[in-house]
Amino acid sequence: NYNTRTIQKSGDELGSLARAINDLAFSLQRVNEQRREFFANISHELRTPMTYLKGYSKVLREGRWKTEEERNQYLEIIDHEATRLTYLVDDLFDLAQMDEGRFNLEHKKVNINEIIKLVVKKTAYKALDQNLNIEYLCELSDKEDSIVLGDPLRLEQVLINLVENAIKYTKEGSITIYTVSNDENIKIKVRDTGIGMEEEELPYIFERFYRVEKSRSRAFGGTGLGLSIVKQLIELHNGTIEVESTVGEGTEFTIILPKILD
Ligand code: ADP
Predict the structure, then answer these.
(1) Above 0.95 for ipTM, yes or no?
(2) Which candidate in 47, 56, 119, 247 could, as Cys together with 196 as Cys, close a disulfide (CB 3.0–4.6 Å)?
(3) Residues framing ligand 1 (Cβ under 6 A)
(4) DSSP states along 38-107
């Protein structure tokens, strides 16, 4: 009886060891696939603006433009693509630093209301400019300040990213940035009445290079890295980020950060 039990037990152990090795092999394979995919994406993302830069500078060099307006258009494309490349390189640099755990994050007392006011100041011209019909609202509770421990510049970067996306994917209606807080945490919400996203897309939008429609982001000028960086930055602040969205109605991102007492 004792022997049988021992044999059965070791059989179980062998079985679970085999399963663990299988799982490990599977996840290593998945990591490798992700790496390969990541580098393929990077090459593609770098090559596309390069092609534009080379192409249009050649056209200009050879004087192949008919009107001054056409020439300015080409110069604008060159400028736009060069800016895109700069953003891409900045984003990749941030991701590389985070992957290596060498990301320098400040840990200061940060007043979230102040950060939001700054973000609104910096992004308002985008929401109100262009030929958009957008109302840009900011609702903060003045009664209390919401203090978190974190890096003010990085928190600003996160919110600018969410607001710029909201503006990018909203043609008319409103963009609202507001906070809801309790004793333990503060929720920062960025809501838009833009094009929205399908529910099945939502689990993937924080992945690197993921775009809801492949063509969408290129037309809108994004890198597809923004939200993956946002999520990592928030997690480095011991926070979480959630999203709710309905096609044709809009999107709301919620960042939850642990509050500290002032
Ligand atoms: P991108 O730089 O392409 O905007 P992000 O990582 O910031 O990349 O976002 C990933 C994708 O999520 C975008 O390509 C876009 O399709 C979708 N998305 C992000 N924010 C919004 C929003 N506010 N409304 C609708 N779609 C959005």
Answers:
(1) yes
(2) 247
(3) 165-166, 169, 192, 194-197, 205, 210-212, 216-217, 222-227, 251
(4) HHHHHHHHHHHHHHHHHHHHHHHHTT--SSHHHHHHHHHHHHHHHHHHHHHHHHHHHHHHHHTT------
φ/ψ region of 196 (left if φ > 0, alpha if ψ in -120 to 50, else beta) reads left
Residue 151 CA, distance from chain mean position: 17
Q: Which residue has the tokens 């941030």?
A: 94
Distance 33 CA to ligand 1 centre (A): 23
pLDDT in tens, 52-91: 999 999 999 999 999 999 999 999 999 999 998 998 999 9
For residue 206, give the ligand 1 atom closest to its CA.
6
Angstrom distance (rounded) from CA 71 to CA 183 = 58
Q: How far is the CA of 211 from the centre of ligand 1 (A)?
A: 7
Nearest CA to ligand 1 atom 19: 165
Backbone phi, then psi, for 260, in 5-degree steps?
-120, 155
Q: Tokens 């991701």: give the residue.
A: 95
Ligand 1 centre to CA of 149 (Å) is 27
CA distance 197 to 216: 12
pTM exceeds 0.90, yes or no: no
Question: What pLDDT, on a 0 to 100 scale, did the predictor assign at position 220?
Answer: 63
| Cα 146 to ligand 1 centre (Å) | 27
Average model confidence (pLDDT) across the chain: 89
226 near 209, Cβ under 8 Å?
no
Q: Which atom of ligand 1 is nearest to the CA of 227?
A: 6
Atom 13 in ligand 1: residue holding the nearest Cα: 211
